[in-house]
Write a structure and sequence with these properties.
Length: 324
């Protein structure tokens, strides 16, 4: 021996073997191309995931998760050990520069939401826009979606639909949005909180009329239910029963194709809803824009409705202590 120490090894830590387990069998995942991979995950039933999604999650350098606790359950079920990073609306602005730096360095990162397809009601679209501006590849790995799952089992027209997401929490805001959406020539899809469900359905019936609707609850899970009826009947049912449990998707049928756009009953409902939050002039402007009717015509009808409402109040007289 000449007393010299052996040269230090320049090998890094042992590389993780990307793999996943399904049906009791282990599979090795192929190397991913660099870039951001948008991976759809189950909305309830863990079996609703594709082999491609599992391979992508296993092979990624890291997984960006809305809630790492939720995603850990999925990864543990399929024996995936990829590191997790939290990415949600509260830390998105802080995390995006770090994520972009890793992508520029040639890494492959996967983005998931708590359930379903990323970017639907989550901040992922801002990340995707930033990644594309950098000229970095973005790939979609499709799969489960609460929006489409609810739509296809609702029994309502699915050839055209509009996804609104969550509505405002207060009634006036909801009615304003319903008035804006009233003329959309397709089914309307919403996410809703169980505790606001009855009020939301009631507001919808008030503005849109008694359209057919469906309430899908806990889709793909053990207690999945889909209740169908009219907006008014569903509102009454949930008001009487109290808030249901679980995740809720509401689907409302399109306007009656046989009726004229801006028919009297529909127009009056829209004007009444608009008058609750706007002045008479502004209400006429909003409804005219939504329906395509002449503003002068809508304004004249709004004047008539306002006069009628005032006359009714005067006829009723002032409230007395006995009335109260």
């Amino acid at each position: 021996m000449n007393g010299e120490r052996p040269a230090p090894s320049h090998q890094g830590p042992r590389q993780r073997t990307p793999s996943f387990t399904a049906f009791g069998l282990a599979a090795e995942a192929e190397k991913l191309n660099p870039g951001l991979h948008l991976v759809a995950t189950p909305i309830g039933n863990l079996k609703d995931i594709s082999f491609r999604a599992l391979a992508t999650l296993a092979a990624a350098n890291a997984i960006l998760a809305e809630d790492t606790r939720v995603t850990k359950t999925l990864l543990a079920h399929y024996g995936i050990s990829t590191p997790l990073m939290a990415y949600h609306e509260h830390n998105a602005a802080q995390m995006r520069p770090q994520i972009l730096a890793r992508l520029r360095a040639g890494e492959a990162l996967a983005l998931v939401s708590d359930a379903g397809t990323p970017l639907v009601s989550d901040p992922g679209y801002k990340l995707v826009a930033s990644v594309l501006e950098e000229g970095i590849a973005v790939t979609s790995v499709p799969g489960a979606s609460a929006v489409l799952t609810a739509l296809v089992v609702s029994g309502l027209p699915s050839d055209r639909f509009f996804f609104e997401g969550f509505l405002p929490q207060k009634s006036a805001g909801r009615r304003s949005r319903f008035a804006a959406l009233a003329a959309v020539p397709g089914s309307l899809v919403f996410f809703e909180s169980p505790r606001r469900l009855a009020a939301m359905l009631s507001d919808a019936a008030h503005v849109l009329g008694d359209r057919p609707a469906a309430v899908a609850r806990e889709l793909t899970k053990l207690f999945e239910t889909v209740r169908r009826g009219t907006l008014a009947s569903l509102a009454q049912d949930y008001e009487a029963e109290g808030p249901p449990k679980g995740e809720i998707v509401v689907i409302i049928g399109p306007p009656d194709a046989s009726g004229e756009k801006g028919a009297a009953g529909d127009l009056d409902a829209r004007i009444a809803a608009a008058l609750e939050i706007h002045s008479l002039k502004d209400a006429a402007t909003v409804v005219a824009a939504d329906t395509g009717l002449p503003r002068r015509e809508v304004y004249a009808r709004a004047l008539t409705l306002a006069a009628g409402a005032k006359a009714s109040l005067e006829k009723a007289g002032p409230e007395t202590d006995e009335d109260a």
